[in-house]
Amino acid sequence: MADLSVVQEYMLCAVNDKGVISAMDTDKQVCLVSLGLAEAGKAGLLGSKTAYVPRREAVGSVVEMLRAEVLEDGTMTEDAAALTVLLERGKCLKPYFSAFEQKEIREKLRRITASPEGRLVKEMAEYVEVILAAAVSGAVASGAV
Known about the structure:
- It is built from six helices and two strands, in the order ααββαααα.
- It is mostly helical.
- It has one domain.
- A hairpin with a 5-residue loop joins strand 1 and strand 2.
């Protein structure tokens, strides 16, 4: 499989098996298809809609890479830390990691962000929190929630 960016890895893990990720337009999903990471399928009650579902092999590859870097001893790359923060804040870890593993992941992220070397990861996590808060407040203000 080709080297993927953190965003591509996040999108693979964030799109559910029905081809849905909130606030994601079709153009972004088609990018995953063009990379061979997702495939078009039928969706909706009558199968009249098109959904772009990530290929299991592609998701599995990303999850196994995360398992190796996050759950095993050793250093974690900034890309793996960034992807983990995105998946954790987006509540996308549950399908791939047990409750025990999720707890270990959160603890490792806390340790990393508390270290001087983890400054960039901490800043990125704070930035994700600000964006999520703005999205929620915007949705509440517009009456969407």
